[in-house]
Amino acid sequence: MYVKKMLTHLLLSFLFLGPVVIHGQIVLETTYSHSGTYASLPLSGNKFYLMDVGNSQCRIYNTNHSLWKTINLSVPANNYLYDIKYLSENLFSTDNSLCLAYVYYSYNETGQYYSYNAKIVKENGTVLLSIPGCQYLYLHTLDDGSTKLVAYSYNYAVFPSTIITSVYNLPGSLVSTTEKGMEAMAPPMPNPAREQANIPYLLPAGHSRGQLVIFDIQGKRLASWPIENASGVLTIPVASFPRGTYIYHIEAGTYRSESNKIILQ
Predict the structure, then answer these.
(1) What CATH number does the domain containing 253 carry?
(2) Torsion angles phi and psi, residue 91, rounded to 5
(3) Which of 180, 214, 233 is the last residue of a domain?
(4) Among 10, 88, 124, 152, who pairs with 136 as Cys (CB 3.0-4.6 Å)?
(5) What is the CA radius of gyration of the chain?
(6) pLDDT of amino acid 177
(7) CB 48 within 8 A of CB 63
(8) Cβ 221 vs Cβ 215: under 8 Å
């Protein structure tokens, strides 16, 4: 009789407590006032790093969001940080140094064009590589195990703008997977555009061909251009389009990227 009463009491207790939550929940850990992402460092572990444009800094945090290191980046006067990529160890050097790549830019108000430059540096400020005119950087690991850095440099001071694609062989390899498969496209440049637009892209793994499709703001398909490499920058002519706002995305097989916006003026 006693056992039966205890079982009844336990059953009633569960009923009053309500359903037990067995599923995990999405929990906000923290927020940052700058753009950032994660990197997996072979020696130092997982880190979160962000770009502080106002202070020309890369700040790096531990997984508990405590500050680990601050790297001050050399940015000339009247220039501003545009991007920080590939925080790494033993990628750009083989001496266990913490390194990164960054891009900065300036705006010529008279000619109304942007100028970009890229640098690869160690955390102590030692410059490993400077690439004049470079706006975009991408890493590729080949089947033979080698790691290549592809840099796209532009001269917007002339029309049509010129492009130089430079390929560098790196001494190390990328351990972090945070930037692999970044199918989301960087913003088009220039934007607004007048005669032509340069659109960087990165196709998902397993795809080396695709197309860029542009639509008007009502969703009507207007034109497309073929993509013949896994990553790069596609230059499209836009002078014949009426002024206004347009939407574009990348298609490759069954894959379709998020849409991006470009303004023509």
Answers:
(1) 2.60.40.10
(2) -110, -55
(3) 180
(4) 152
(5) 24
(6) 45
(7) yes
(8) yes
How far apart are alpha carbons 175 and 41 in whole angstroms? 7
In sequence order, the 6+-apart residues with CB closer than 8 A to the CB of 60 are 47, 48, 49, 67, 68, 69, 70, 71, 87
- Distinct helix (H) and strand (E) counts, the chain: 1, 18
E-state strands within 34-112:
36-41, 45-52, 57-61, 67-72, 80-89, 98-108
Give the pLDDT means over successive 10-residue stretches in the chain (265 positions): 53 51 82 90 93 94 96 96 93 95 92 91 97 92 89 88 92 65 61 86 82 86 89 87 89 82 85
> What's the pLDDT score for residue 99?
97
Query: What token pair was written down for 129?
Result: 């590589």
Cis before 19? omega within 30: no
At residue 41's C-alpha, the angle toward residues 38 and 43, to 5°, is 150
With CA atoms as reference, report the closest residue to 60 among 43, 37, 80, 82: 37
Q: Report the sign of the C-alpha dihedral through residues 178, 180, 184, 190, in that order.
A: positive
Range of the domain at 155: 30-180
With respect to residue 5, please indicate whether it lies within any of the assigned structural domains: no
